TrEMBL record:
This is Metallo-hydrolase/oxidoreductase. An N-acyl-1,2-diacyl-sn-glycero-3-phosphoethanolamine binds at Y151, H310. Coiled coil: none annotated. Residues 1-20 are annotated as: Disordered. GO terms for molecular function: N-acylphosphatidylethanolamine-specific phospholipase D activity; zinc ion binding. Residues 105-333 form the Metallo-beta-lactamase domain. Transmembrane segments: none annotated. InterPro entries: Metallo-B-lactamas, NAPE-PLD, RibonucZ/Hydroxyglut_hydro. GO terms for biological process: N-acylethanolamine metabolic process; N-acylphosphatidylethanolamine metabolic process. It comes from Lentinus brumalis.
Length: 393
């Protein structure tokens, strides 16, 4: 594992048990609400009427994981709902006498199959959209990546089912402070790779001697962590880069974009160091946070109230440009929405902001868009001129 020189400003102590956003701290929800009231504005308003907008509701489709598309030289991603994706890297070839194709490496990111994103299944944000398939229906995967430990990104019943169905053969890639949680759940310690911001590691596929390695880079995000009242900020949150076979893929986890002084500088740094990306997955909404407001027919009056921790659609487009992504798909919306209006609103705002900022649609170069839950997108890898791998004896 390697780590470039960097300060540890995101560490709030010397024991790796407390973390913070090292830039000018964004306002809290309470502070933002108080600011609106001070301006004579009420934090809530009636939900938008979107009946005549051309944007379409996200639906759930049965995934085929892009089986009809060629695997060689392409990166594929299937949206599993919320921030969950199955990413398939280009199928490698081995030069060992006659050329033979190996199965592609697959990475499962932030999976959640539970009905509620909560410590209990009788309360908390409830799914509006079901998973597109069962966990058993997923093709073979080699790595599970977690962005942070909020319940909508780290779901114990899902991890437990993976451990039961797939056994100890999967590697788990987690931010600093999360390894002990996985160990306590029965994941073998040697299968867990815990990383700090800017750390990188190259890992072979589990129980394989084919010589293929996948590189994971832990990157900053502007967010937080905690599964209860007493562990807030006790584990690190992160975004992730995955590289193999010339493919360069970015998953932003859950993140805000704005600080009190302007855009978070981390994303420009990520783009400068590691971009451009063939594919990125970026949140465009607050997920299930405060979804009960939408269930009452209301909406938060301004995205500014939560944009320190959750990027708005317009800010997600700016993040997309900072990281230099050729194709970016929106996530973290619709699955746990409190109403049909809240599920559609992020898509509407994204389309409006895309027009204003001059950004193309998803399938065009440097584009940004959305897909249905269960749908697969596939793009040619631009950074690879040679995808063959030499099998080591």
């Amino acid at each position: 594992m390697s780590s470039p020189p960097t300060n540890l400003a995101h560490h709030a102590d010397e024991k790796n048990t407390a973390f913070r956003n090292p830039w000018m701290a964004p306002k809290s929800l309470l502070e933002s609400g108080q600011g609106l009231l001070a301006q004579g504005k009420f934090p809530l308003q009636l939900a938008r009427r979107l009946h005549h907008h051309p944007a379409k509701q996200i639906k759930v489709v049965k995934p085929d994981f892009g089986i009809a598309e060629p695997d060689e030289g392409r990166v594929k991603a299937t949206w599993l709902g919320h921030a969950g994706f199955m990413v398939q890297l280009p199928a490698p070839k081995v030069a060992h006498g006659k050329m033979a194709e190996l199965q592609p490496t697959r990475v499962l990111i932030d999976p959640i199959w539970s009905d509620r994103a909560s410590p209990t299944q009788w309360a908390g944000p409830k799914r509006r959209l079901p998973p597109p398939c069962s966990l058993k229906d997923l093709p073979e995967f080699h790595f599970v990546v977690t962005s942070h430990n909020h319940y909508d990104h780290l779901d114990w019943p899902t991890i437990e089912k993976i451990l039961k169905d797939r056994g100890p053969k999967v590697h788990y890639i987690v931010p600093l402070g999360n390894k002990s949680w996985f160990v306590s759940g029965g994941v073998p310690p040697e299968r867990i790779h815990e990383m700090d911001w800017w750390d990188s590691v190259e890992l072979p596929r589990p129980d394989s001697n084919d010589g293929i390695k996948t590189r994971f880079i832990c990157c900053p995000a502007q967010h937080g962590s905690g599964r209860g009242m007493h562990d807030q900020g006790a584990t690190l949150w992160a975004s992730w880069i995955v590289q193999e076979g010339g493919a360069n893929v970015y998953h932003a986890g859950d993140t805000g974009y704005m600080t009190e002084t302007g855009p978070c500088p981390a994303f420009k740094e990520i783009g400068d160091k590691y971009g451009p990306f063939d594919l990125a997955m970026v949140p465009i909404w607050r997920g299930g946070s405060l979804s009960f407001i939408a269930a009452m027919g209301m909406r938060i009056a301004s995205n500014d109230v939560l944009d320190g921790l959750h990027a708005s659609p317009a800010q997600a487009l700016m993040l997309h440009k900072d990281i230099r992504s050729r194709h970016t798909v929106g996530m973290h919306f619709a699955t746990f929405a409190g109403s049909d209006v809240e599920a559609l609103e992020p898509v509407v705002e994204l389309m409006e902001a895309r027009d204003k900022q001059g950004v193309n649609d998803l399938r065009d170069e440097w584009g940004f868009g959305v897909i249905d839950v269960g749908a697969t997108i596939s793009f040619e890898v631009q950074g690879a001129t040679e995808l063959e791998r030499t099998q080591t004896a």
